[in-house]
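Service request form, structural biology core

Requester: graduate student, group of Dr. S.
Request type: structure prediction, single chain
Budget code: on file
Notes: please return the result as structure tokens.

Sequence provided:
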Amino acid sequence: MAEVLRTDIFQRAIPWSRLILNSKRKINDLNVASGEKIRAVLAGLWLASVLILPLAVAFPALGGVAGLISLVVAAANWPLVTFFVRDRGVLFAIQAVLYHQIYYCYSATVYAACWMERHILGKTYKASDETSATTAGVRSPLATMSVLNDAKDDGDI
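Core staff response, request fulfilled:
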């Protein structure tokens, strides 16, 4: 599992976050659509509620808050939940949705770090600077976007 997380963070989350931040276009598509952003915030609230759950012994209302946030997360991800239940069963659906919340949390954290890297530290990246995903002949997201933007500018697409 650690290798999956490491690969997803360094080969997907960081390059794509930098690509999005370098883009001159506002992106509201796929996993950066408004609904996904809301789900990422909900995942962060859910994780925070789980982390403070041990305090529910002294403050029982925290257990209710964690339960309520869990229900909201389930509702926000309902199409995904029902797909997993139909395809692989309830236990798998619970595990997959829990992992998906972790995915939202680390992806949002990486994006925030890349945002700070760009807006506070002033770092920018060009397609040639991004090499983390170029192993085995695979283009990095920035390199791919550079090629696509060049083709678009040339009228090829």
